Amino acid sequence: MTNQSNHLVPLPCEGGRGLPLAALLALTMASFIATANESVPAGLLFGIAQGLGVSEAGAGQLVTCCAFGSGLAAIPLTALFAEWPRRRLLLAALSIFLVGNTMTAATDSYLAALLARFVIGLATGVTWSLLAGYARSLVGPARQGRAMAVAMAGIPLALALGMPLGSWLGAVAGWRSVFLFLAAMAAVLIVWVYAAVPELQDSQTLRRKRLPEVLTTPGVGPILVVLALWIFSHYLMYTYVSPLLAWLGFEPHLQQVLLIFGLSAVAGNWLVGMLIDRWLRRLVLACLAAFVATAAGFSLSPSNPLLVGIGVIVWGLSFGGAPTLLQTALADRAEAEANIAQSVLVTVFNLAFAGSGALGGALLETQGARTLPCVAAGLLAAAGLIVWQASHSGFKRGPRSGK
């Protein structure tokens, strides 16, 4: 790969040996808030339901609206604002986070809260489409995978800390305080991005491709299919981790399991960041194989706490780096059209997320919790086979870029 892989003006720091940490950590915080926007309300459903006068199922629609908005917005809004300078667009999205979370905290209207979460979802979809290309453009080709891992570290951090801390703050100070805290984080990040993240403007030297051309680029299709299978399998188990643990006999330890999973995911993302530029393909295969083994092991109903604990750790380690691995692989293949490809990734991600919830609920009602890891293991094995066969396009052998 050359610097042509980014259609943004290259920065002076690309020639240095270190990473531009101030800018990359700002993107980390952006990925943290974007993840928290989508996940934290799930831990506040009881308080939200009481505060807005609806059922917990109705409160759960705040999560659905955000995810739906994110998936709906990613492709059209990324195309609509393709000519905007990247920092301006990121600041606009963060401003919507600030206003939307403040509105959620202040309103007593259920419909207004749904609208606020939907608009936040639109901004979240744009943010996800921006982050990968932005992180890659801050460094030279040989360090793009590592930069992506830093920027995407906000995802496992939000999973590890966001929901537990959000649930705790909601219990201590009320659910509205959690959304005010997210708004305050967005305000701080706006200042941080303005001060530390350089503006990137389109170089206008490359012809823009249309979406169908991006989708038919060699390697893009297999990566998106692997993404769908991986995310579907993960959320098939993660969304229904409570009944899954109940079937395994460990339901009283739900909070500990979620914390162990989250911390393991943080460690997994760190390991991927250290190794991705040399062994992207091997890491994808290893992570999928580890996840298959874990899902298959859970399907056998192990009653040993040590085995279950090891399984949760392996699950977290194998999933923690998945966003970084797949976004890096996709951006490598899409090259100059990385932002368009990432917008498709966001849409596929959210559709897989939603589909896993629907199928998981049906399986849980009709077949029981044991079928969840069984189905996940089969889908993950299929993803591994696709990766193995895509050795010349989607997941190439060898280092992803020269030093």
Describe the structure in your own words.
By secondary structure, the protein is mainly alpha-helical. It folds into two domains: 18-201, Growth Hormone, Chain: A; 211-398, MFS general substrate transporter like domains (Growth Hormone, Chain: A, Up-down Bundle), CATH 1.20.1250. 76% of the residues lie in helices and 0% in strands. It contains 16 helices and no strands. It has helices at residues 21-39, 45-52, 56-80, 86-106, 110-137, 144-152, 154-173, 175-196, 211-215, 220-238, 241-248, 254-299, 305-320, 322-334, 338-366, 371-389. Helix 1 (21-39) packs across helix 6 (144-152). The protein starts with 20 loop residues before the first helix and ends in a 14-residue tail after the last helix.
CATH superfamily name of the largest domain?
A: MFS general substrate transporter like domains
Mean pLDDT across all amino acids:
81
As for the number of domains, it is 2
What percent of the residues sit in helical stretches (DSSP H or I)?
Answer: over 70%
The count of strands amounts to: 0
Q: Give the CATH architecture of the largest domain.
A: Up-down Bundle
Shape, please?
globular
Strand residues, percent: under 5%
- The separation of the N and C termini measures 11 Å
Regions with pLDDT < 50 over 5+ consecutive residues?
A: 1-16, 202-207
Subcellular location: Cell membrane
Main location: membrane
Organism: Herbaspirillum lusitanum
Protein name: MFS transporter
